[in-house]
Specification:
Layout lengths: L3 E6 L6 H7 L2 E3 L1 E5 L2 E5 L8 H9 L4 E3 L4 H13 L3 E6 L7 H15 L5 E5 L4 H16 L4 H11 L3 E6 L4 H5 L5 H10 L1 E7 L5 E8 L1 H15 L7 E6 L3 H13 L5 E6 L2 H7 L4 E6 L6
Parallel strand pairs: 1-2, 1-6, 6-7, 11-12
Antiparallel strand pairs: 3-4, 3-5, 8-9, 8-13, 9-10, 11-13
Helix pairs in contact: 3-4, 5-6
């Protein structure tokens, strides 16, 4: 079997130690904050997630940018010159144009390196949902799946990746057009928390609303219990936007009940955090996607 490398984006929101353990490559993504551009790397060398969320809290604004042609080309061509095939698992096409941008680069590189395989697959996932899909794909690669077999596995299982999120600060959902100004004001006043997911087209959807922080976390747990498949054999991911205490609270409930095999707790980075703000909690697991 030819050697190949799994590549993904920094939207994957996996901890650095996990990225190194499963041996995947990360293409960094950029964001602009107060007229300065920063690149988000897994080691947070330019700005830590904590600093990012503190600046958001203090009124700074952030805007994300897509991965451009030249960034893709630099990353992919280096590996192709080393004689490696590439499987790129992209951030959801329902949320970003990065997948489509990658296709343009791949088309050119296939002509220049006809002896190499380079495949881009749409994760239809975001943040720790994308992270869980990539993590499981890396496990399948370790089991010996060839690149074409792994592409087929991803396409068959990407819609079994269940993402459930709740946010603390409604301002950023309002800014992104996910909720109206009136909904944001009422929600903030009454402490109503939206519960969001990612649909079959990889788009963010507002599924329900609950009142209070505790109820919002209970809703995430309820969805895992309702929709999860073979939970005892699963590694799940809990992501948090600079809200480790709440993530640990949810993880401890799951651990005490011995519901899953393992839990990865991860920080939501600035790319996703731009659109959710501080305080988001995400729970991702493999199951039957049920957007109710």
């Amino acid at each position: 079997m030819k050697d190949y490398v799994i590549i993904t984006d920094s939207t994957v929101d996996l901890p650095l130690d996990i990225i190194e353990k499963i041996n995947i490559g990360i293409i960094p993504m950029a964001f602009d904050m107060e007229n300065k551009t920063y690149t988000h790397y897994p080691d947070e060398r330019e700005m830590t997630s904590h600093e990012f969320y503190e600046r958001l809290k203090n009124g700074d604004t952030s805007v994300t940018t897509q991965i451009n042609y030249f960034t893709y080309r630099e990353c992919f061509e280096k590996l192709l010159k080393e004689g490696k095939d590439i499987l790129y698992i992209a951030f959801s096409s329902g949320l970003s144009g990065t997948y489509n941008n990658s296709q343009l680069v791949i088309q050119d590189l296939k002509e220049e390196y006809p002896e190499r395989k380079i495949i881009s697959v749409d994760s239809l996932s975001a943040s720790v949902g994308e992270g869980l899909l990539v993590y499981n794909a890396a496990m399948k690669k370790e089991e010996g799946l060839a690149i074409e077999e792994l592409v087929k596995w991803i396409e068959e299982h990407r819609n079994n990746t269940c993402h459930w999120f709740t946010v603390e600060d409604l301002h950023h959902l309002k800014r992104g057009g996910r909720i109206s100004s009136v909904e944001a004001i009422i929600g903030t006043t009454l402490k109503i928390k939206p519960v969001l997911s990612v649909d079959y087209e990889g788009k963010l959807v507002n599924v329900s609303k609950v009142r209070g922080e505790k109820k919002s976390l209970e809703k995430l747990l309820d969805k895992m219990l309702e929709d999860g498949m073979n939970l005892k054999d699963q590694t799940i991911i809990i992501g948090h936007a600079d809200s480790l205490e709440r993530a640990e609270y949810l993880a401890n409930i799951i651990r005490e009940k011995e519901l899953v095999k393992d839990i990865i707790i991860s920080t939501i980075g600035p790319i996703i955090g731009t659109h959710t703000g501080q305080g988001m909690i995400g729970l991702t697991f493999m199951g039957n996607k049920n957007l109710k």
